[in-house]
Amino acid sequence: MGSYKVEIYDVTLRDGAQGPRVKFSADDQLRVVQELDAFGVRYIEGGQPGSNPKAAELFARARDMDLQNAVMAAFGSTRHSKSAVEDDANIKALLAAQTPVVTIFAKSSVTQAREVLRIDPELNLTIVAESVAYLKSQGRRVVLDGEHYFDGHKEDSEYALNVLEAAHKAGAEVLVLCDTNGGCMPWEVTEITEAVRKRLPDAQIGIHTHNDAGCAEANTVCAVQAGATQIQGTINGYGERTGNANLVTIVPNLQLKMGIRVVTDDQLRQLTHLSHTVAELANMTPHDSDPYVGRDAFTHKGGMHADAVRKLKVSYEHVPPELVGNRTTVSVSEMSGRSSLLQKAAELGIILDRDAPETREVLERVKALENEGYEFEAADASLELLMHKARGAHHPFFLVRDYRVSVEGHASDPSLSEATVKIELPDGNLMHTVAEGHGPVDALNAAVRKALEGTYPELSEVHLEDYKVRILNAQAATAAKTRVLIESSDDETSWDTVGVSENIITASYIALVDSIEYKLMRSRGFGATSMSSRGDA
Fold this sequence. Notes:
There is one protein chain. The protein folds into three domains: 275 residues, TIM Barrel; 71 residues, no CATH class; 126 residues, Alpha-isopropylmalate synthase LeuA, regulatory domain (Double Stranded RNA Binding Domain), CATH 3.30.160. The strands form four sheets. Strands 1-2-3-4-5-6-7-8 form an eight-stranded parallel barrel, surrounded by nine helices. It contains 18 helices and 16 strands. By secondary structure, the protein is α/β, with parallel strands linked by helices. The longest helix has 21 residues.
C-alpha cells in the first residue's frame, strides 16, 4: 500500500478507548478517523463489531467517508471451538462490518490455549487456519494478532511459531507479535522478532506492545530494527492499565532518528496538532512533558540553557521542533537570566535592549514576584503585560477603585455569591455595578464585565476556560498564599494570567483583571493614556 517502509496500524478507537477516563462519542470517532487519515495512517481499527454497537455504527458511517490514506479494519477473535467457521457469530459480525481488512486475534501460547480456551493446542492451530482461510475466501484482507506472543514464544517457541505459520499459510497478510501483558524487555523483543523473521522470511511482521514495564515505545522500535514493518499503537499512548505504545513518540523516532519513512514530512509536521486534537476529542488533558508534542518538550527555563539554545539550538534540542509541528519556547522564572528574558520577549513580539534599564527592571520584577509565589511559566499574558508596563508602553483601560464580594447561603443555591465593583473609565465616569454568580470568582467576573462591556463590547467575546488554584505554603494553614491561574479565550486564541495573595478572592481578582486588560491590549493597542495605573483594591 505505497512506498512506506513502515506502516501505521492505529488502535486508538479500540484499545485506546478502553483506557481509563477516555471517552469518544460517535461523532468524535469520525473526527479521529479523519485526523488519522490525514496524518497518513494506513490502517484504522474501529473496534469489535460483534460486541460493541458503537463500533458497528462507526463502520457503517465510515463507509461514506472519502479516506485518502487509510482503510478501516474490524477486530475480533478466531471462530469459537464449538462453532463451524461459517456459522460463528463473531466471524459473521466481522464480515457484516464490511471493512476491507479484518484483524483476528489468536492464542499463541500453549498455556493460553489449554487454560483459557480450554482446548487442545492442536485444535487451536486448526481454528486459526480455518478462520483466516474463510475470511480470505469472503474477500477480506486478514491481519493475525498473535495474542500473548512473546510470553508464548518464551514458553514454547515451536508452538508459537506454528501458530504464526498456520495463519501465514492460510493467507494472513500480516503477522502481529503482541506483548499483551506489556512485560517484555527490548532485548527479548529483538531476539524473538528475529526468530520469527528467520522462520517466516517472506511474511510481513507487525508489532503490538503495551506499556506495563514502561518499554512499549522502545520495544516497538526494537521490533522494527529486527524486521517488523507494521507498528500498532494508539495516539498519546491511550489504553488499558498503563496504556499502549504511543505512536506520537514512535513515528518521529523512526523517521527522524532511524531514517525510516513512515509518513510524509508535511504529515509529520501535523504531529502536535494530531496529538492535541485526539486528546481533546477523548476528553483528556494533554501532557505538557510528552516527547516531541508536549508544550514543554522544547521549553527552556534555565538561563544558561536558554542562552545556549539562542546561540546553537542543538545544544538542548534533539530535533528541530518545527519538524513535528511544535516550537521553541523560553520560560521566564526565578531561574532565568537576561538571555532567557530577551528570548522570551522576542517570542512575545517585544524587543528589549540587552543593556537597557527596563530590561533589568523586568528581570528583577519577575524574580521578585516569583519569590512571592507568582508563576509566569504558565502565564504568558501576565508576563507580557508586565514587560509592557516596565517599558512604559502600557496604560490601563480602567481602574478598579473598589470591589466587594459576599457569599451567602441560600437553601435553593448554596453557592450563590454577590460582587460589587466601582470602576473608573477613561472618560472619568465611575461605574458602580452589582452581579451575582455561582461562586465569588464568577460573581466578580460578571460585575466587572457588566461595568466594562458598554465601553468595550469586545469583552463579550471572552470566555473563562479554566480556573486553577494552588495553595503555596500549606503549613501556614488559613494564612497560606494562594496562586490562581486563569485561562481565557476568544474566537481567535487563548491566554493565561496569574494572581497571588493570601486571599483567594484577591488572587483571582489580579488574574481576572490581567486577563481583561490583555484582551483589550490585543484589540485596542496599549491602552488609555489618561489612566496612570491599574489601581489596587
